[in-house]
Amino acid sequence: MGILKTKKNKKFNYSPRYYSSEKEGSPYRMEQKFDQFRKTVGSNRGLKNKFKAAWDDLRDRSDKNANRRILIIIAILVLIFLYLIDFDLSIFTQPN
Question: Which residues cross the membrane (predicted)?
Answer without folding.
Answer: 70-92
